[in-house]
Amino acid sequence: MPVDRGGAGGAGYQLAPGTWRELLRDDCDRQCRPDARLLGEPDFKELKAAGAARSAQMFGERLAAGDPITVAASNVPGRNIKGAPDWLRVSAIYGGASMVRIHRDDIAEAAEFFGDMSGQVWERIPVPAQHRPDV
C-alpha cells in the first residue's frame, strides 16, 4: 500500500516544543567534536575543549539566524507518535520522507523522498520549503 504523502509539502507537522533547538544543538556538537580516532592522543582533552567552544559559538550564531535544520527522518524525536503523518512516520524505504526540514517554530516538513521504489529507482527527490515561520 503506498504511503500517503499528503501534507508533505503543505503546512507541515507540529513537533514538541524545543525540537528544533535540540536538533540544532546536536548538529553543532556533531560538527565540532574531535575525530574519535584521536582519542589516544595526548592533546585529546584540549581538542575536545576547543570543539566544545566552537560548538557553543556555532550554536549561538545559528540560533540567532533561525534557519531551518535538515536531518534524517529517523532522527526526528516523536516521529512514531500516533497522529504523525505517514510521510514522517513511515521509513524512507517504504515511501516515507528520507530527510525532514525542521523550522525554528518546531514545524516539520518533508525535505526529500526517494524515487519510485517499485522499479528499484532510488533517486533522491528534493521537496522545496513551503512553511514560512512567523518573523
Structure description:
- The chain is of the alpha+beta class.
- The chain has one domain.
- The protein contains three helices and five strands; from the N terminus they run βααβαβββ.
- Strands 1, 2, 3, 4 and 5 form a five-stranded antiparallel sheet that branches.
- The mean pLDDT is 87.
Q: Which structural class do you get from the secondary structure elements?
A: alpha+beta
Overall number of structural domains = 1
How many beta-strand segments? 5
The number of helical runs is 3
User: What's the shape?
Assistant: globular
Q: Secondary-structure element order, as H and E?
A: EHHEHEEE
**Helical content (DSSP H or I, runs of 4+):** 25-40%
**What's the story with the biggest beta sheet?**
5 strands, antiparallel
Poorly predicted residue ranges: none
Beta-strand fraction estimate: 15-25%
Radius of gyration: 17 Å
Name the average pLDDT: 87
CA-CA gap between termini: 40 Å
Q: What is the gist of this entry?
A:
By secondary structure, the chain is α+β, with helices and mostly antiparallel strands. The protein has helices at 19-32, 44-65, 86-89; strands at residues 13-14, 69-72, 99-102, 107-114, 124-126.
Any descriptors?
3 helices, five-stranded antiparallel β-sheet, 5 strands, alpha+beta, 135 residues
Write the layout of secondary structure elements.
Elements: E1 13-14, H1 19-32, H2 44-65, E2 69-72, H3 86-89, E3 99-102, E4 107-114, E5 124-126
Antiparallel strand pairs: 1-4, 2-3, 3-4, 4-5
Helix pairs in contact: 1-2
